[in-house]
Design goal:
Radius of gyration: 19 Å
Structural class: mainly alpha
Number of helices: 13
Low-confidence stretches: 295-300
Oligomer: single chain
Order of helices and strands: HHHHHHHHHHHHH
Helix content: over 70%
Mean pLDDT: 84
Number of domains: 1
Strand content: under 5%
Length: 300
């Protein structure tokens, strides 16, 4: 393996593990502030960092809101993903919520067929069926305690899948930095609206109060760490290629298991571990199938 590939794998692994650290901090704040408000604060920090970078490189004019509707779709989808995962880690063990989120590659493949008209491969449907057997095994014990709330991680995975589909559709319409800024600022606006609507609805758990300073500080740290994680993953992709670093995403699950076990006493049972293994296996099968399709066979 070349040095750049090793470096890329390490960058990507560090990025995915950093995402789990943020999720663990979120879990530790369960019920201290509404989930949309926490997510909005996270994107406020990310938007501020990206605005400084984009404005310094492309001028103040680059900070205007996007007119492209698909840029707003990206922001709304990533917002719903964030809210889903915030709620998921509050009501479920961290490792199990993260495990369900790993259905995202499968959902993305199915949505690409439906929304982008990509030709469906048999491997996509095989991986989908296998993955949702794993989902059933992981969700099984949580229905008793969380009810239909166990679907929150699927909401998070679906939101991320729609984001990825929209990313494909807008490729080349702006610089990479501008694309990151557009997604962050539109997510911030949407989340701010959801936060206000939740407060006015009177629904328990969505009422706004002035939080303890530590809640704001942790939300700000999550925003910074998420931005850092995305940069690390991007650097890993640049150095080694998206196909090479893709399996490193499962480092996020291992980190989630370790953090959940250490700080929250969330010890996954045998069936949950089996379900996680099935979901990971389905994802790796889909990834391997895609790589075999992209890499042409050489004559022997």
């Amino acid at each position: 393996m070349q040095h750049s590939d090793r470096a890329g794998l390490l960058y990507a692994l560090a990025g995915f593990c950093t995402l789990s650290i943020g999720d663990a901090i979120i879990k530790g704040m369960a019920g201290q502030w509404p989930a949309p408000a926490m997510a909005a604060t996270r994107y406020l920090v990310g938007t501020a960092l990206l605005a400084v970078l984009l404005g310094s490189r492309q001028g103040i004019g680059a900070l205007r809101l996007p007119a492209d509707r698909l840029q707003w779709v990206r922001g709304i989808a990533i917002s719903l993903s964030a809210i889903g995962m915030f709620l998921a880690v509050w009501i479920m063990p961290l490792s199990e919520a993260t495990t369900i989120a790993f259905t995202q590659p499968i959902i993305t493949a199915v949505l690409a067929t439906v929304l982008l008209g990509e030709r469906a491969r048999s491997s996509t449907w095989i991986a989908t069926l296998i993955a949702f057997v794993g989902v059933f095994l992981v969700l099984r014990p949580n229905f008793e305690t969380a009810g239909w709330g166990v679907l929150f991680p699927l909401m998070g995975a679906t939101g991320m899948a729609v984001t990825i589909i929209a990313n494909r559709a807008v490729t080349g319409r702006a610089t990479v930095l501008a694309m990151q800024y557009y997604m962050s600022v539109t997510a911030l606006i949407f989340l701010a609206c959801v936060t206000v609507a939740g407060h006015l609805s009177g629904v328990e758990g969505f009422g706004l109060t002035w939080p303890h300073w530590s809640v704001l500080a942790r939300c700000a740290f999550i925003g910074f760490s998420a931005t850092l994680a995305q940069w690390l993953i991007f650097m890993g992709t640049v150095k080694a290629g998206a196909g090479t670093v893709a399996p490193m995403t499962y480092g996020q699950l291992l980190m989630a298991v370790a953090l959940g076990w250490t700080f929250f006493g969330d010890r996954p049972d045998a069936l949950a571990l089996l379900g996680a293994a099935i979901i990971i296996g389905a994802g790796l099968y889909l990834w391997h199938s895609g790589r075999n399709k992209r890499v042409p066979k050489t004559a022997s």
